[in-house]
Amino acid sequence: MSTETSRLLPKSDQINPLSGKTIIVSGAGTAGLSFAKGILELWPSNLPPPKVKLYERDPRDLPASRGNYSIGLRSDKLSGGLQALKKLNLLDQVLAACVPNSDKNGSIRDHNWEDLVHFRVPDNPPDGLPVANVRITRNSVRETMIRALPETVEKNFDVQCVSARRSEKGGMDVKLSGDDEKEVYCDLLVVADGASSKMRRALRPDDGLKFIGASLITGNAFFEPGKVPPYVEDSFGPVIGGQGTGLVVFPIDDRSCVWFITHRSKEPRTPISGEKALAMKDEIMAEVRSRGAVFGERLEVLLQATEMSSLKIFNAQDKRPISHTDIESEPVVYIGDASHAVSPFAGNGMNMAIMDGYSLSSALCNATSIAEAVKEFDKESVPRCTKAWRISHIVLRIFHAKGIFLWLVVRILRSLFWLIGGRKK
């Protein structure tokens, strides 16, 4: 526990209800790892800490093909991911693992790759941060956070929480994967097992993901070191085709990038990845070239460099955040995508997950009751995540804008960015 960040409760006679108790964290993604780090990093130094047990279905070390795409970490008011990392004493380690030179300006561009709106990185990052935004691969965040976990965290990889029920002891009995279907007890269950949360399906079967009317095709392009095209490295953001199709390209490192072609769809498509996508590579690439013809030679350069095994088709889905109204009868808290999955159009999922992990751990460290702590967490998290959810639906419409709607969008965005100090070209 850090001396700098460990805190005392406001009154010495207050006892934290989780002192010496057991917390199970279901899922070692960004949200779960942030929480596991935060609950012990911020724990009052005058009280025995809780026992934290982390269960993750995936192995400790993931193959390079898993999570090998970059995600933005930001410092704006809606995101706050970098500020939360700083409070968790993780900022320096995460910045060291970021995509090189990724603290750059962003743009919304037209099909000719010309800027419609150009928004700049603040000259003075907020809250004493060294940078205002960066990009990092999901794998790098995961590895950095796992290494930073306190030694007292019990880490269980290749073991999944599959269901739970209220225990006679007052907490939750959690069933684990495996032939023996072992049950373990906890006083608080933190569900952080992602957008397709198995625990959420078990405990809240009617609270699932919803298709939001768009499908995406994606792939990873690889180049010689230092040869990533400049139009990928110089600025980040969507390219609007103006015919109902959008394109996004992000660098992974100095020799690779990931691209997404997105289109409207009335019904969800059959997801395709792995060996099936490889077998259908010619058909998939033909569709990408057809839908992305408006983006010209620059897209073709990316397609020529694409690793066929990385191709994937998936649907944009999301869900509204969970409000924990029955925490006293069921001590379960949902964080990250398990609570409020957002589509790729939000561009904010990792920031929200880190904020959730920090916000919940901070509230619990100062708690006189679990119910009050979760109430404080919801008070901060639900409005923040609902706003991000709403913005993602607006962004979805912008991605696929065409005709008079596109004309209006461009002018509104330029006016807004001018008002807040952005820059247009």
From TrEMBL:
User: PANTHER family, alphabetically?
Assistant: FAD DEPENDENT OXIDOREDUCTASE DOMAIN-CONTAINING PROTEIN, MONOOXYGENASE ASQM-RELATED
Q: What is this protein called?
A: FAD-binding domain-containing protein
InterPro entries xref list: FAD-bd, FAD/NAD-bd_sf
GO MF terms held by the record: FAD binding; monooxygenase activity
- Gene3D superfamilies in the cross-refs: FAD/NAD(P)-binding domain
Please report a single Pfam family linked to this protein. FAD_binding_3
UniProtKB keywords: FAD, Flavoprotein, Monooxygenase, Oxidoreductase
Domain (FAD-binding) spans 173-367
Q: Where is the organism placed in the taxonomic lineage, from the top?
A: Eukaryota, Fungi, Dikarya, Ascomycota, Pezizomycotina
